[in-house]
Write a structure and sequence with these properties.
Blueprint: H1 2-27, E1 29-35, E2 42-49, H2 55-65, E3 74-77, E4 102-107, E5 111-113, H3 114-134, H4 136-140, H5 151-173, E6 181-183, H6 185-205, H7 216-244, H8 272-288, H9 291-318
Parallel strand pairs: 1-4
Antiparallel strand pairs: 1-2, 3-4, 5-6
Helix pairs in contact: 3-5, 3-6, 5-7, 6-9, 7-8, 8-9
Length: 334
């Protein structure tokens, strides 16, 4: 009997707590925000909040009182080392206690728009590579630079320029970014990667002592055709993904093939845009038969595989009916 009395008492207490939270959420309650790096240090206390307010609204309130902590720099968590809470979440969805409600904020540091980073990292290769192609005397000396280019080198320049011009076009007119900003340090890291590889590849492909592909014209044309098909496939997938997301939202839907035959790869992988990207650079490497280009392809494949696996897991977690036969980036394998 005592056991049942205890259970009833606990239920009543729980009911009271829920009721307190409910009325607090509707009538206004206080929320204390702590520093995620120093969990005992209180940053600010916000009052008169309602349960319907979103995390984004909380961030804006904090930014109004803490000018250095802009909205973009804030990452809100329920626990100091917990996962970041999405901006769309409402306070009442977090399961906070009615009394002493609190959250943690992590300062992400200075931020820069994703679009700006993309434009700068892609513009670099579009200007660096032509320096080696049009002004070889500045790089290799006037004597060596008099040797005419092999036609594979000319095609390489055209393919390289088309690829990065496409990247800039997509960044400006096609891509819709789910995250508005990234840490400013990423600009240095990303630009170093793309600009460094641009110089590395251009130096050897445009070198006066460049060795043509082993299988001659056949190898060049096979690589060229495969590159063109892969680039078109990549562009097609980016357009399809853009059409899945309404402007100004972070809405996600299961991507599926549309009328474009290049989109059929969605039947096999979650991120065919990465698949086509890797195919483009593999084709480029075949066309020019260059070790630096192959290294760039391998490095890109490793990074894109990581991204693809993360997106693949996110799709499976978000959508219960997500196609089980799909892999992340390589059909039937990865």
């Amino acid at each position: 009997m005592r056991h049942w009395v205890s259970i009833v008492g606990q239920l009543r207490a729980s009911t009271c707590d829920l009721g307190t939270f409910y009325f607090g959420a509707m009538g206004g309650f206080n929320l204390e925000v702590f520093d995620a790096k120093e969990p005992t240090r209180s940053i600010i206390t916000l009052d008169s909040l309602s349960g319907e307010e979103t995390i984004l609204a909380i961030k804006k309130r904090i930014a109004q009182k803490k000018l250095a902590l802009t909205v973009e720099r804030q990452s809100m968590r329920v626990e100091p080392k917990g996962k970041a809470i999405s901006d769309e979440k409402q306070i009442r969805e977090l399961g906070l206690a009615a009394q002493n409600a609190h959250l943690y904020v992590r300062d992400l540091g200075p931020q820069i728009p994703w679009k700006t980073v993309f434009l700068m990292e892609y513009a670099g290769p579009l200007f660096i590579y032509p320096l080696f192609y049009f002004r070889p005397e500045f790089i290799y000396g006037s004597v060596l630079s008099k040797k005419p280019y092999h036609f594979a080198v000319n095609y390489a320049f055209i393919c390289w320029s088309i690829h990065y011009a496409k990247r800039l076009f997509e960044t400006e007119f096609i891509h819709r970014f789910s995250n508005g900003t990234m840490p400013r340090f990423n600009l240095i890291k990303n630009c170093s990667y793309y600009w460094g590889f641009a110089a590395f590849i251009a130096y050897f492909v445009n070198h006066p002592l460049y060795t043509p592909p082993y299988f001659g014209n056949y190898q060049v044309y096979v690589g060229l055709v495969a590159f063109a098909i892969s680039e078109f496939g990549n562009l097609s997938i980016h357009i399809l993904l853009r059409n899945l997301r309404p402007p100004g939202t972070r809405e996600r839907r299961i991507p599926r093939p549309d009328g474009n035959p290049m989109s059929l790869l969605f039947n096999f992988v979650s991120c065919p845009n990465y698949t086509y990207e890797v195919m483009s650079w593999m084709s480029f490497s075949i066309m020019v038969q260059s070790m630096p280009s192959l290294l760039f392809t391998i490095a890109g494949f490793i990074q894109m595989t990581i991204w693809a696996k993360n997106k693949h897991r996110a799709y499976k977690k978000e959508f219960a009916d997500y196609p089980k036969e799909r892999k992340a980036i390589v059909p039937f394998l990865i």
